Every structure is written in structure tokens, then in C-alpha cells.
Amino acid sequence: MPADIYVPSMMKIGGGSIQQLPQILSELGVIRPFIIADPIMAELGVTDKLKTMMAEQQIHADVFSNVMPEPDDRSIIGAVEQVTRANADCLIAIGGGSAIDSAKAIALLASHGGHIRDYKVPYVIHQQSMPLIAIPTTAGTGSECTRVTVISDSESAEKMLCMGPGLMPKVAIIDYELTLTVPFRVAADTGIDALTHAIEAWVSKKANPYSDQQAIAAMRMISANLIDACTDADNRAAKEAMMLGASLAGIAFSNASVALVHGMSRPLGVHFHVPHGMSNAMLLPAITEFSLAGASQRYADCARHMGLANVDDDDASCHAALVTFLKKVNDTLHVPSMSEFGIAKGEYDDKLALMAKQALASGSPANNPLVPDENAMIELYKQVYR
Ligand SMILES: [Fe+2]
């Protein structure tokens, strides 16, 4: 079956590539860029550096730096108004996945109007908005290379998935030097998110030969470097590999979709405010174990591609090696259990049925090799809490 593949029009990859921003603006022919940034980027002076870099080319840029983690519809309204008032012709998003996801929605609403709720799946966003230059500062979400954004609905608390080619950034600047000072917890959570993207893209029912190659490369790079990149602050090679691996994983899942882990992860974010990467990490070993039987060969190949097993090891040994590795990653990177995170058992149990409904409604579980029904998913949620 033919596959539709979408990637950014231009990718600048490597340490120091952010220096090419003024040249990129000139190549795009834009003159009124607007910066959308995480608050920490403003505090660290990164947005001022971008403004100075552009001012040297006589380009003035305004800044919105009130991006909220796990953004919702209300958090982007102010930015949409400012971008519209400034008559901006380009957005520059700098920060983690929340900044880039917010900027995708801001570009869409500033260019085409409406409420972000109007654009959630199954709607497909084909409309081209003002160009977006995405500059990730974490090696994780891969949002700089995806046609996806996730914005919460402040009324229903639903995490709305919005998808379509119109959300693909025009340019991705993938500069690992921006990740050198990322705190341990953020590096660990976002790194496991990237690992989840690669694995879920690989086992997804929507996988195709192109996404497979991106997923294989991403699995190799991330599994070999995730722990070192988080635990060894001076390991630039590991951080560089993680940055590229996360982008490749983004390309993989954007062109194949995520699956059950992401489907079950979003409700944990909505109801218990678990950061996205961390809730994926809490789920990944158990959900992988559950799913093995649905794609035995594919999961065995995960272990082989990650170098966790020999090519001639039988599938069962490969499965065991994969699950052991995922548990080791969580232990080494101190991923808390749900109770350690502070989720009260009673409150969790009260939400089980709702979370299972919301996870299924998101559509992502349907891409999993094994699709649990609502009752089976409730059992999985219970198992993960234990
Ligand atoms: Fe993710």
C-alpha cells in the first residue's frame, strides 16, 4: 500500500546550526518573525540571543514566552492575538515539545482562525499556515519533525490530538548543543518519550517501509545513548546521538503513528499531571509485555536492532531482553512508580473507566499490534499502578 510521507522542507542538523537562523529567514523571504518560547528560554537569555542575532540582519522579532507545559486552548489564545496584531509572517518556536506544539496551534489559528477544538482528529489539517521554524531544546518529542500537536481542552480536560500535513514545521533546526544543560529529569523523561516513539512507530499497524527505516535508526541511536546522555553531563557524543535519534523517531511516528502506550499515557497527564515522557515511561515495560504476542517478530527485531540480542537468538529470548532493558532504563533513570509520583490509589481507581474510555477514543490504541477492549485496558492500568 502506498505510504504518504511528510518531513520538514529543510533540516539544519548539528552543533551550532542555530547560527544559521538569519540565513534561513532570508531564504524563506520572511521579514516579521515572532518567537514562541518556553519561559525558561527567556530566563536563560536564549530568546534575547536570537533577537540579537536577527537584529544584526535588521530583522526585529517579538517574543511570547508564556508557553505552558502540556499546553491547553486557553494558554495559546494570548499568543494568537499577539501574533495577529504583529502581522507576523513566520513563527520561530524554541523550547521543548510544549513550545513547538503550542507554536503549531498558534500558527494554525493565527492563519486560519477558529478554535483548536475545530481541528482535532478525525479532522485532517491540510491548510498551510505561516511557516514555522522549530528549534527543539530537548532530545525527546520530535515535534520539530511531526505533523502532530497535542493541545488540552480546558473545558473537557481532553488531550486533543490534531494532525495533518499543515502542521509540519517548514524548517527544523536540530542543534544538540541546546540540550547540554537540560536537567536530568527532563532529559530522562523526554529521552524515554523518544524511545517510545521509535518502538511504537516500528510495531504500529500503520508502519511502512519508510517509517521502518527511521524507526530502526532511532531505536539504535536512542537505546545506545539514552542512559549515558542523561547520567554523564559531559558526554557530548551521547547527547548529539540522542538529539538526532529523537528527530528520527519523530519522523518515524509522524509517518506511522504511535500506539497503545501513548493512548494510555495521555489520560495520566490529564488527570494526574504526570509529564508526558514520564507517563510513557511508567507504561512502556508493561504495555510492551502485553503487546508482544500481537507482533512477535517485530518485537524480537526491536531487541535485535537495539543490540540487546544476537540476530540468531530466538524470539522469546529477544522479548525477554527487550522487557529487561526497558525496566533497566526506568530503574537507572529513576522513573517513579505512580504511588511514588503521588497518585493516590483511590483517586486512580475512580478514574480507571474514564481513562480507558479516553485512551480508546484517542484512536492511538487501535494502531497497536494487540488492541485491548475497555475492560482489558482497565486491567492494564491496574497492573501498571502495582
Ligand atoms: Fe510522545
In short:
By secondary structure, this protein is α/β, with parallel strands linked by helices.
Describe the protein in words:
- The chain has 386 residues and is of the alpha/beta class.
- The chain has helices spanning 21-28, 39-43, 46-55, 73-85, 97-112, 184-203, 209-231, 236-254, 260-272, 276-291, 296-305, 315-332, 338-341, 345-361, 374-385, and strands at 10-13, 33-37, 62-64, 90-95, 132-136, 148-152, 159-163, 171-174.
- The strands form 2 sheets. Strands 1-8-5-4-2-3 form a 6-stranded parallel β-sheet, sandwiched between helices. A two-stranded antiparallel sheet has the order 6-7.
- α4 packs across α5 (97-112), α6 runs antiparallel to α7 (209-231) and α6 packs parallel to α10.
- The model has no long low-confidence stretch (mean pLDDT 95).
- Bound molecules: fe (ii) ion.
- Fe (ii) ion is lined by residues 141, 193, 197, 262, 276, 280.
